[in-house]
Specification:
three-stranded mixed β-sheet; 12% helix; alpha+beta; single chain; 1 helix
């Protein structure tokens, strides 16, 4: 995880008309990055999308390394 320099996160709202679950994403993100964990934080973007290729998924993460 220390060599990830950039993340692009696509989040689907759990129900029509709702907003993406950014707090839920951050709950998962802080399990790996932050105080007491990996200190080298990647840049990141979170984008709400209408859907993903697998309709059962609510999130997709692209991670880039140097």
């Amino acid at each position: 995880m220390g060599d990830v320099i950039k993340m692009r996160v696509y989040l689907v709202a759990p129900q029509s008309g709702a907003s993406m679950d950014f707090p839920g994403f951050m709950n998962g993100y802080t399990q790996f990055y932050g105080p007491g964990k990996q200190q080298n934080l990647p840049t990141r973007s979170a984008i709400q999308v209408a859907g993903l290729a697998d309709p059962g998924c609510l999130a997709e993460v692209e991670a880039a390394r140097p």
